[in-house]
Design a protein that fits this description.
mainly alpha, rod-shaped, DNA-binding, Homeobox domain-containing protein
DNA sequence: TCGTGGAGCAACATTACCTCA
DNA sequence: CCTGAGGTAATGTTGCTCCAC
């Protein structure tokens, strides 16, 4: 697996410091969820593999694979987790993971819940899982993926916005450059220059009595980085209320 | 009080399956 | 029927926090 080394230098990192989901009752809840997989695993991998096999059993044994995903089925007809505790023993033999498709009703409820809070504490997770006849792990995974999708969408929106900003700045730069060359041309033609009124757009610098828009100050604007997505936060110079937001999910 | 190991969690990258044009 | 693209559920890894010891 290829992971970037700067993986954790992201927006989410500092948010993790605020562990809004931390719930004192968590331990009890999680023990409940992982009932039967409570062996003291020494490594994460072993935990994962055990949890994985548990999931596979449910996914396969529950039979909630795509072929039975007709739009009309009711939530209560989803048996898989109803069998939260039962293992079903399905086709765990071939090791293939069958992918279930959430019903429209389930997706709707999950979406609505996500709108209210994009993370769930263990109690909420369990309640939601129970309501939807899903496993808590499935709810958890759905929220993880949903957060990822939201972030991706927001990134795309940000990117588009920055692209437009860049284009606007380029245009502005071009305009200013043109203005500079025009002013230079005027300056090189004293007979014309003397008879002209000073440009009304130029303001006097009160302290030095020189025009604030002297030629040197009209150099092309240089951004903090050559790229609009430079190392510095691209939003640093953009008022918060002007930042675009990804559409509702 | 401090260090340590385990557990749980979220973020992230990736994989694998499914649908649909 | 085949196929490639896109969507998304699921998996694996990593780092962080909390807590018991």
């Amino acid at each position: 697996m290829f992971q970037s080394s700067e993986r954790n230098v992201d927006v989410g990192s500092f948010l993790r410091g605020i562990d809004v989901n931390r719930d004192p009752s968590r331990a009890v809840v999680d023990v409940e969820e992982d009932a039967g997989v409570s062996s003291p695993n020494s490594t994460v991998s072993s935990v994962m593999s055990e949890k994985r096999s548990e999931r596979e059993l449910v996914a396969a044994g529950g039979g909630r694979v795509v072929e039975d995903n007709d739009a009309g089925r009711s939530l209560s007809s989803l048996d898989g987790c109803g069998s939260e505790d039962e293992d079903g023993g399905g086709n765990g033999d071939d090791g293939s993971r069958k992918k279930l498709r959430l019903s429209k009703e389930q997706a709707l409820v999950l979406e609505e819940t996500f709108k209210q809070h994009n993370t769930l504490n263990p109690k909420q997770k369990m309640a939601l899982a129970k309501q939807l006849n899903l496993r808590t792990r499935q709810v958890e995974v759905w929220f993880q993926n949903r957060r990822a999708r939201t972030k991706l969408k927001q990134t795309e929106v940000d990117c588009e916005y920055l692209k437009r900003c860049c284009e606007n700045l380029t245009d502005e730069n071009r305009r200013l450059q043109k203005e500079v060359s025009e002013l230079r041309a005027l300056k090189l033609s004293p007979h014309l220059y003397n008879h002209m009124k000073p440009p009304t757009t130029l303001t006097m610098c009160p302290s030095c009595e020189r025009t604030s828009s002297s030629l040197s100050s009209v150099a092309p604007p240089v951004m903090a980085s050559s790229s609009p997505m430079g190392s510095m936060s691209p939003w640093a110079a953009i008022p918060l209320q002007q930042r675009p937001a990804a559409g509702s999910h």
